[in-house]
Amino acid sequence: MQLFALGINHHTAPLAVREQVAFDPLRLSLALNELLRAKPVREAAILSTCNRTELYCAAESSDAPAEWLAEYHSLPTSQVKPYLYTHPQRDAVRHMFRVASGLDSMVLGEPQILGQMKQACRAAEEAGTMGTLLGKLFQRTFAVAKEVRSTTAIGANIVSMAAAAVHLSERIFERVSEQKVLFIGAGEMIELCAAHFAGAKPARLTVANRTPERAAILAERFGGDTLRLDEVADRLAEYDIVVSCTASPLPIVGLGMVERALKVRRHRPMVMVDLALPRDIEEEVGKLDDIFLYTLDDLGEIIESGLESRQAAVVEAEAIIDNRVANFLQWMDAREAVPTIRALRDSAERMRRHELEHALKRLASGEDAGAILDALSHRLTNKLLHGPTQALNQTEGEERAELQHLVSRLYHLHRDN
Asked: Which of 3, 104, 198, 268 could form a disulfide with 92 if both were Cys (CB 3.0 to 4.6 A apart)?
């Protein structure tokens, strides 16, 4: 049984491909159980974010999980395979450590990915697909990420997705303070964006969400108001900047909706930022005049601005990770020897009990205690050494030489004594 990490991310696949293999958070438990039922996979966890979809598995090979990923999303394997990476054992451990530490993120050092990995871990635990091996790996992963963030400057000077959204808006509108901003969704990413936009003091800040209570809480925090999600189509024209990030499997903002809004606005420009995966805003919207549509992939060049100052920290972080990978693999190797160690101890314990019972019977019959203890020690020694002695006597040539070397190591023997 080996560890595997496989999937696609922003390095290997464009947004159009990534959104096709994203998992609905509400169906994640069902997906995990389906994976274990349908394929020879012993343990599994799924990480699905706006920039990556990854499967972490304990399995005989990576072929079955890779095929399942395509099958689950009703895609031909040939359509997914060109973008898919697979990391076995050592590389899988290193990859998970790097992801959790923010070294593999679009925003180098960003902290959100650690929380997302913890959510993936909890989802697997709740689904019953998290075993001892993956469970230990996730705990080590979180510990390594904490060490990297607390001992290096990997998280310094981060230009986040939220900050980049404000920066993009400022490219079109000189002052965000004169614009009206609509947020669609009320999750963590929208909360971060709202905090950044609120800092620019927009003329109006509105939150629309499927759950009105969550929208109200977020709006109140930043001095804004709310809309029902079904009101967005009729009220869209009122807003200059729209930022959307929901978990909807289908677009929230369609082409016709935006065309109608532009007519009402008399073609005053609108900035639309789509941070969702799958996308919340139909791709065709970006082709309209007066619409400036930015997706996750478009934010890449903005977030590069804080990269150079963190490169030295990357070297330190990679050194920490390499060391911790070696430690985890040592634990895995030791774990494989546990059944043998347990069997060896059980065998010795049976011998001990047998000889003790024999000695107690002799003591009960009135025999000399000293003689009984002497006999006990001799009989126990002979039984414990019978196996290795017999193996040495029954082998010859290179096999005997190798066995002699192993026995010398096991019992710390020195031939010159």
From this structure: 3
| Residue 193 is a catalytic residue | no
Annotated active-site residue in 50, 121, 193, 245:
50
381: which 2 tokens?
């020694």
Position 408 scores a pLDDT of 87
153-180 pLDDT, tens per residue?
A: 887 655 677 888 888 898 899 889 999 9
Total-model pTM? 0.71
Q: Indicate the burial class of 66 (C-beta count within 10 angstroms; 0-12, 13-18, 19 or more).
A: buried
- Taking the alpha carbons of 9, 13, 19, 21 in that order, is the dihedral positive or negative? negative
Q: Which run of H or E residues covers position 57?
A: strand 52-59
Helix (H) or strand (E) holding 85: strand 85-88
Give the total residue count for the chain.
417
Q: What are the DSSP calls for 364-394, one per residue? A: HTT--HHHHHHHHHHHHHHHHHHHHHHHHHH
